[in-house]
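chain and backbone:
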Amino acid sequence: GSIIGENESVIYIPDTITIINNYAFYNANSMLSIVIPNSVTSIGYAIIGGTYSLTSIEAPFIGNENASACDYGNGNINDQATKVLGYFFGYGYNFENQRMFSNISGYLTDENIATLFNETKQYYNRTNHVIDNNIENDDVITTYIPKSLTTIIINNQAVVHTGTFSNVLSVTSYNFSNVLTTIEDLAFYLDLDNVNNQAHYTVNGDLSELVYIDLSELVYIGAYAFANSNLVGFNSANANEIIIPSKVTTLKSHAFYNTDLITALTVSATVTTVEDYVFAEMENLIYITILNRLVGNHMFYNDPSVVTLVIPTTVEEIRESAFGGMTSLTSLTVPFIGRINNADALYSSEKVLGFFFGHDVDNLAKDNYELTQNEVAYYIPTSLKNLYVTVDDIISAYALQNVKLENVIFDTVVTVGDYAFENADKLVYVGKSVQNISTTNFETLVANGLYVKVNGEYVQVANNATYDSTKIYYTRSGSEGT
């Protein structure tokens, strides 16, 4: 039975305590808050089961012990079930059986009390069973978490384990100390059918107080960690913003997939591993700041609210379909066209504009359109009007073939490949450094509106200009020049 009286509302565990036994505060219905000190190293099963008035938990960790990262190769998967929030409340049957815990009968026979809890399905295995963003996984427990619970504070945990807060609906604020290094797979994952039931929540971003603790030691965010959930702040005191902390190196597949309430995102310079679809399907994402050197496959796939995207010159690799489905994109600034800035890639299938947008049409909005570049079909949004290439010294063959833009600026181009502008209806601005361009490309450019930089100013090339493979000869205001 409980070790406290039924009328206690705030429970402070003395810092002389190291072990809390099973069911310690079971059915303490008047409890509003519990504070567990860092001295505690072992927490028993269902310690706060049935506490239907509980609003906040402060603890050194979630689970039976403060464990290191899961070792799926050698560890006991069943033991991972002791690392989810439901462990504190007990693994339940359903209320129809008038039973809360598997080994305590006759609990919560009052249907009115039953309505004070959310029946919660929590996953405790990694994401190898995620198929088309749906969990097909037998490693799941069902628990009953009070609807009153809104705040969780964790003071001494380095690892948020697989599925720890998966499908938790009522919590609005999670705060972790800066010892946190790892957020594992599915940590805050939400089943799609729960989206309309989950409260908007922050992780280290208390919007009511406008203060937060920087997750300065976090290095790893796992697959599907926040997927589908109503996250409205991560490592930021600003509403609807994600700031990837300054030591994070790894973003696993679908980490923030379908977090639709986020409008602003900053990716830190330390990120070196970016798996597929990390920030995909974010319906309201508008502002993106990239500080790292890699843009991953499908990284921003189907983010339809981005209008202007600037990829800085520090980026060294942009992988396929990174911007696919950006159906509102009007202006794109990139250091180069294609996967990398390869000075030898005059003929490369990865050096065409369509590479950024991909040729996978699944779920793409109908206002994307298909075009062919070098006999490969790509889908580039019709909204895209302006392209600015800041570093690339080669416009590869077919790079902008069939692309319909209004303005294209290349400041550092030296060489233009065959058919680079074939059937491309646009105004093109190039720096004076351009040296190698075919006669066909030159005539196409002049006909559509070619501007070259002269004394720091862009000047339109006249239709009667000539070109000898190294210089453009033009006439301007009655005077000749090159």
Remarks:
- The chain has a mean pLDDT of 82.
- The two ends are 92 Å apart (CA to CA).
- The first strand starts at residue 10 and ends at 12.
- The helical segments are 77-80, 86-89, 111-114, 439-448.
